[in-house]
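Tutorial handout. Part one gives the primary structure; part two gives the three-dimensional structure as tokens.
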Amino acid sequence: MTDALKPRDTKDVENAVQWALAESKALEVVGRGSKRALGRPSQTDLTLDLSGLSGVTLYEPEELVLSARAGTPIAEIEALVASKNQQLEFEPMDYGPLLGQPDGAGSLGGALATNLAGPRRIKSGAARDHFLGFTAVSGRGETFKSGGRVVKNVTGYDLCKVLAGSYGTLAAMTDVTIKTLPRAETEETVLVLGLSDANAIKVMSAAMASSCDVSGAAHLPAHIAFRFGGLDTTQATTALRLEGVAPSVKHRKEALIALLRSYGSVTSIGVERSKLLWSSIRDVRPFAANGPSGQRPVWRVSTVPSKGAELATLIPPSAQMFYDWAGGLIWIAPLPGLDVATDEVRAAVRSVGGHATLIRADASVRAASDVFEPQDGALAAVTKRVKESFDPKGVLNPGRMWAGV
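Part two.
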């Protein structure tokens, strides 16, 4: 028996799931494997490898819509839309560096299944907000479709929102359709130097509340700022990105600098350094598996932006961290030789509100811990009912998100 099934089309996927049902086998659903170490360790018999389902099937730049097979490399998608002066507005992060995989190895289906979003999420939303339609095979071995190829689609249930962020536990997507948008002509980033975490939150809040249309807001404390691309400072750095046509960016930069001058030293960086900085923030480069952080555990904590600094004070000082999403997203890694216990992170989140995900850890730790935020009785019951509706026999990625689901 082979350890992996590699379908060529939707019918092959349907046949594979039907076979697994008949043989009482569980399948690990994998796109191109870049995010395989996310979530709880696989509790499956075989791998359903969707990397053979590759290729763009429709791209109409004038209609802002693209369809592709789910295993298509996202790097290929981004290169194609860039050639038409467009972009994926949700700015999907690349988990490869963080998880010890090559850069640019992820698939479009994987980005949607994990509901990825980069720094632009504060302005443009996550992957689910740009997910228009799909074809997929459920755990019942049935092919089904949802959505379509138009930007506005209100027909039936919005199953795109259900599958986005489901980590392949409900269905194996084979074809997907997404929205594309025009790429900004240029960008610049305003930097405020030397702020405490609490004051940085105030600065980011003021910038987001202004008319400057900020598309990225991050705070990099002094202990880690020097490890981000595009920066040449050892001071704490609060970064605010502006994108658009050149005259607009210039005007908004001047307005933002005037607004923030009273908070501290303010400067700016141009387009090339700005792009390098934000790709480094997006992909959490300081915590990359081949960098100083090595294989140390990494936490991803989401909370109300105004509570970000407060939550960080509840995390033991044996950790490095930085803020994205105007303070609403905190990346945390323990210092070498130390640890940040699961209970400590969970207690901090309970105190302030939000949710925490253990992004990187040894398989034994992920198997014994709650990788995703634990669910209470009512929410857990809803999650289980949704799983049973799509996959009653637990064929697809069982236990990937929560034990027994």
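Part three, for discussion. The chain has 13 helices and 18 strands. The first strand starts at residue 4 and ends at 5.
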